[in-house]
Design goal:
With 102 residues, the protein is mostly beta strands. The protein has a single domain, classed as Beta-grasp domain (Ubiquitin-like (UB roll), Roll). Helix content is 7%, strand content 31%. The strands form two sheets. Strands 2-1-7-3-5 form a five-stranded mixed sheet, with no helix packed on it. A hairpin with a 5-residue loop joins strand 1 and strand 2. The longest helix has 7 residues.
Amino acid sequence: MIKVIVQDSNWVELGSFEAEKWKVFTDMAQEHDIEIPFSCWSWSCGLCLCEVVEWREVINESFLQEPLMEMYENEVLTCISAVKDEYFEKEENYTIILKRKF
């Protein structure tokens, strides 16, 4: 199981959900009534930018497309990022923590 916890910029937990294969974080969060702001869907505005607090290596940061903006190594645009396929095949449990920047 791959659990995703979303926190606001003050480290307050906004909610959590189990990750689904082939879905980006923004879509999964919306389906669970957890707000991750987004605007452009052009992969460059940065509104959905999150810091990855735990399990960065599990995330495919360019699942839909390469980001069109510079980010730090521990950041992802949640509108184009998803869990790497191979982690759904593993028997281990993972808890990804995403901290919203905005």
